[in-house]
Amino acid sequence: MAKILIAEDDRISQKLAVKIVEEMGHQAYVSPHGKHAYEALMASNDFDMLMTDIMMPEMDGRQLIQTLRGDQQFANFPIIIMSAVVGVSEISNLLKLGATLFLAKPLDRKEIQEYIERCLAC
């Protein structure tokens, strides 16, 4: 069973992601924004992966990825971006920034499950 941190400020996307993660037999923990997610990761280094939105208050997903990738302990930490941003160049930029995978919203159950399995297998 993996511990998955979900950084998402939208309640509907949050609940859907939590439900899917828990149905897969994993533990889901929710952060309302990037700063909270970063603090949770720094306080407890036992998370197995992060699923994060891009547009959030206080610290957005881009800042969160940059901050995490700047810390050696998170250099290879699996990060799935969940976003309605679907432009090819924007997705490419997020992956260059350090995201492991990109997941388009609206969230698709099978796609989320596949991405989680892929990230946890790394």
Notes on the structure:
This protein is an alpha/beta fold and 122 residues long. It has one domain: 3-Layer(aba) Sandwich (Rossmann fold), CATH 3.40.50. Helices cover 45% and strands 20% of the residues. It is built from 5 helices and 5 strands. The chain has a 5-stranded parallel beta sheet with strand order 2-1-3-4-5, sandwiched between helices. Helix 4 links the parallel strand 4 and strand 5. The mean pLDDT is 94.
Beta strand %: 15-25%
Strand order of the largest sheet: 2-1-3-4-5
Helical fraction: 40-55%
Largest beta-sheet characterization: 5 strands, parallel
Number of helices: 5
What is the approximate shape?
globular
Q: Report the CATH C-level class.
A: Alpha Beta
Number of strands: 5
* Distance separating the two termini: 15 Å
Can you give me a brief rundown of this structure?
The protein has a single domain, classed as 3-Layer(aba) Sandwich (Rossmann fold). The chain has five helices and five strands, in the order βαβαβαβαβα. It has helices at 11-23, 34-43, 61-69, 88-97, 109-121, and strands at 3-7, 27-31, 49-53, 79-83, 101-104.
